[in-house]
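Propose amino acids for all 94 sites.
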């Protein structure tokens, strides 16, 4: 019997979000510029998860005007208002 070719796509496993207290502590540390490399990596992953979940929520919105502007809305609420640089092509990676 010939083997079947199975196309497997690697997808990022979306794990549970961290606690709100820890998340807020990391954002406060980022504002004071006292963030270690490990904490920065954790914060970046968490911000990206929040960004992708925001896009999915707004995409399901019934209001078409809001749905079309989902990338700008989520980008400003997650990254821009906190003065954090967003990752390159963040919306395409979701």
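Proposal:
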């Amino acid at each position: 019997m010939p083997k079947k070719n199975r196309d497997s796509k690697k997808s990022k496993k979306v794990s549970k979000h961290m606690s709100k207290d820890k998340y807020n502590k990391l954002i406060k540390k980022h504002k004071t510029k006292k963030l270690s490399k490990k904490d920065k990596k954790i914060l970046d992953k968490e911000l990206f998860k929040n960004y992708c979940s925001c896009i999915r929520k707004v995409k399901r919105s019934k209001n078409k005007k809001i749905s079309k502007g989902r990338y700008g809305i989520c980008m400003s609420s997650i990254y821009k208002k906190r003065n954090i640089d967003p990752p390159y092509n963040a919306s395409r990676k979701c």
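The radius of gyration is 17 Å. The chain is about 50% helix and 0% strand.
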